[in-house]
Amino acid sequence: MAIISDFQEDEAPRRRQQQPPAAANEEALAAVLERAGGALPFLQAAIDVARRRSDFFRDPSAVSKVTAAASAARAQVEAEERAAREAKRKAEEAERKAAEAEAKAKAAAEKPEGSQVTAEQGPESSVKRDSIEVEKKEEGNVRQPNAGNGLDLEKYSWTQQLPEVTITVPVPEGTKSRFVVCEIKKDHLKVGLKGQPPIIDGELYKPVKVDDCFWSIEDGKALSILLTKHNQMEWWKSVIKGDPEVDTQKVEPENSKLSDLDPETRQTVEKMMFDQRQKQMGLPTSDEMQKQELLKKFMAQHPEMDFSGAKIA
């Protein structure tokens, strides 16, 4: 037993020495994070150390650099969440299609021979029907939203929440920030690589807060742009005017995001969602229901009056 123990004690430092520097640094930082009692105290301590032991915060742009790094981290988290949701959606879609195919095969096997021609033509006609439905949905340049309430286009993809829009632009692997052209104005966006035609260049769908917009390179192969909406209580139909539009009636805010809002804003968003569902079902909105209720009370208080021709304005 002593021999094994001595061997293990000798091996432990050796394994630690063989760890890559990045992994060792991450483990050390993770240990400090745990002792600090949370991410925010950890970051505050790190900023304090940088302030006392370096000249970083003597740079006037230090705050914007820290904010940009935080925004880039947030954008990466959102990208990972979108990828996970998309993978889940695709898995569910594949499972659903497999179940439908199995059901069709079973139904075809149970039908008499005389109905085989109809069964064979069924999938083709179904494909045609699906194609017609897709064409109808995308008629007028309006499309179904992706998992992030935006669209996946040929040159870029975008997602949105009420306060902001996140744009992801694929770029050649290894692209550095010095090769990027990203001009964000209140109502205009231009994105591309130096010496090449712009990838995005046009008028924004709605104005943005330029000082709260950031961009960063993710893994050297994608440009992530965060646009903070000027009006944070409306959904965008597109990023650039004239580009394909998303059907905002199909937008679905995440409940987890709603919980982050203050009570007044959350109440407004929930009212918007309720009215949206009511309109889709051809039912009265909350404002219309309130007017109907007021009319009913008024009618009850004045039975002598004739309301047969009354209409809600």
Short description:
With 313 residues, the protein is α+β, with helices and mostly antiparallel strands. Helix content is 50%, strand content 14%.
Q: Spans with pLDDT under 50 lasting ≥5 residues?
A: 1-9, 114-121, 134-138
Q: In one word, what is the shape?
A: extended
Tell me what portion of residues adopts beta-strand conformation.
Answer: 5-15%
- List the strand order in the largest sheet: 2-3-4-9-8
Order of helices and strands: HHHHHEEEEEEEEEEHHH
Tally of DSSP helical segments:
8
Approximate helicity band: 40-55%
- Main sheet? 5 strands, antiparallel
Q: Oligomeric state of the chains?
A: single chain
Q: What is the number of beta strands?
A: 10
Could you tell me the radius of gyration in angstroms?
28 Å
Report on the structure:
It is a single chain. The chain is of the alpha+beta class and 313 residues long. 50% of the residues lie in helices and 14% in strands. It has eight helices and ten strands. A five-stranded antiparallel beta sheet has the order 2-3-4-9-8, with helices on one face. Strands 5-6-7 form a three-stranded antiparallel beta sheet, with no helix packed on it. A two-stranded parallel ribbon has the order 1-10. The longest helix is centred in the N-terminal third of the chain and has 49 residues, at 62-110. The protein is extended.
